[in-house]
Write a structure and sequence with these properties.
Number of domains of chain A: 2
Number of helices of chain A: 9
Oligomer: homodimer
Strand content of chain A: 25-35%
């Protein structure tokens, strides 16, 4: 239906109600699972009345597949299932079933490298009651092509980041260990970054220290030691992986307060995310980090991070077919 | 497709990908507008990839229709359009077009009393870029039957409320004047209320004073004066309406800090929401408010509030047909 027509006709005759939505949008290639069905991404939709949309009452996790292997799937499942429990939601699928569903979404999509999301929303109640206890919680999963916070050029020369004054939603409001979609603070940070000519942002915690950025944690390296913010941030799986890699490399690392000054004077800085792994930062607030080049410790960690993707101790194969 | 079958078959053959989602959920009767079409509520869905879902990157407003008339539609449109601008989104529809669309949603639904929502989501970009500037923002509207925070019994005897220790997302994180779907703090408050045997909750602001509840503002009356929290809350239209009604009745009212003790010792307490109007509270944290009955000032305000729904200065007619 044409919008202009709808508008001019409003005070003469009412427009008709169509039976079906005609969606002309393009969607990335992938496969979703919902309500027992495997579907193309164009069909993966939730009602505007789902509390997962209307109240962002949902938790999720994202795991990636690289060269046909899930990376640290167990850790992502652990975090997801814990979040579902903390939000007092119930899944109609078991952990083993989720694993099978994620495998199938990737296998059916055919992607050898994929960004795989599992979601639990509060759903809705059959009576549209506002009582969340009466809602039928909903599980959704999908696999789309692998995505990265940093593009190829940015990975090669390091990201340009600004520190925004926006404060990350504090733990007393929303528990950051329950991975959630409350991102308006992070989106505000992103716009602050664009305004300053940078590519992405770090925002602060309530105490004025560095927290995290849109979809990533951050690490600073000074005097050979690594530090990452310890309070008010998502306990990222890639963040944890850095701790594991540091243990292997004998590098000291700690989760603690990271001040703005400390970040500005760091020798090396990198961000971590399932969407891209370990990604170097070479400019902060317009100034070079260290010598303005990707540092040697960051390079070692990036290399080891990707090596682990073939290691059966860190990854599990996707069963594409039999 | 049967879930059990899908699971047991995963390591033998892959399941098939269906063309279309079969949704067996029931939806409230109503009409939605999206992408130039008017649709039944069962068709009003957004992609799981829309940033409005994945990042709760959206703003909205809800206006109600009572006895065939919109109540204070202009104020809701003002707030909605301001929120869209603040989030740096762009609407493909003008204010006049939105008015016509909302009218049509209500008229086509046939509801004489309706809960009418207008939404703008960040949308997605055709390339699924993570850059919000590249997203095609999306306008959606719908009309469903009128809903209330308090049911009939609760309106007659007053709500039972608890004060939860949960802290409302502070303004430094998310601007509360931009009406948003970041509700996990409010949902946490609701569960705290249920655990305490109450019906709904008030949560705190960062300073430990009373903020608001899930979908409503709150007022306390002491010594003939009304107070409502001034900081860190949504500037509700019903809240503003109470100020206007108080001016008419010659009642002193102010937006300022409201302490927990102050609320506990108030003579009367009520909450305000487009979903239900002015709703009395007669128990807080298990103790009666005043004498535990709905107070006389609350009753006067409730009465005047509903009277205004027929007043052309406060309401505008829905054009159901011509």
């Amino acid at each position: 239906m044409n919008m202009a027509t709808a508008t001019t006709e409003v005070f003469t005759v009412l427009p008709t109600v169509d039976d079906h939505h005609h969606d002309r949008r393009r969607y990335p290639h992938g496969v979703a699972f919902m309500d027992g069905q495997y579907l193309p991404m164009s069909e993966a939709k939730v009602s505007v009345l789902d509390w997962g949309f209307l109240h962002s009452d949902a938790t999720y996790d994202t795991v990636h597949v690289w060269n046909g292997r899930f990376f640290r799937l167990d850790l992502h499942l652990d975090r997801f299932l814990r979040g579902v429990e903390q939000l007092r939601m119930k899944l109609a699928v078991s952990r083993a079933e989720i694993e099978a569903i994620l495998n199938n979404c990737v296998a059916l999509s055919g992607h050898s490298s994929a960004y795989v999301e599992m979601i639990c929303t509060r759903g809705t109640s059959p009576t549209f009651s506002r009582d969340p206890r009466q809602a039928e919680n909903r599980f959704i999963a999908f696999a789309v092509p692998f995505a990265s916070v940093a593009n190829k050029e940015q990975l090669e020369r390091g990201l340009h980041v600004v520190v925004s004054e926006t404060v990350r939603i504090p733990p007393k409001s929303v528990d950051p260990t329950i991975k959630n979609y409350h991102w308006l603070d992070l989106v505000k940070g992103l716009f602050d970054a664009y305004d300053a000519g940078a590519e992405t942002a770090l925002i602060l915690n309530v105490e004025g220290h560095i927290a995290e950025g849109p979809g990533f944690n951050v690490f600073a390296i000074s005097g050979g030691s690594l530090k990452t913010p310890g309070f008010g941030v998502l306990p990222g799986i890639t963040r944890r992986t850095v701790f594991d890699l540091c243990a292997e490399l004998g590098l000291p690392v700690s989760a603690t307060d990271v001040g703005r000054d400390e970040l500005a004077s760091a020798e090396e800085v990198f961000i971590t995310s399932t969407a891209g792994g370990i990604m170097p930062v070479t400019r902060i607030d317009g100034n070079p980090v260290g010598a303005g080049q990707i540092g040697s410790t960051t390079r070692r960690l990036v290399e080891l991070y990707w090596q682990k993707h073939d290691d059966p101790a860190w990854s599990t194969p996707v069963h594409y077919s039999r």
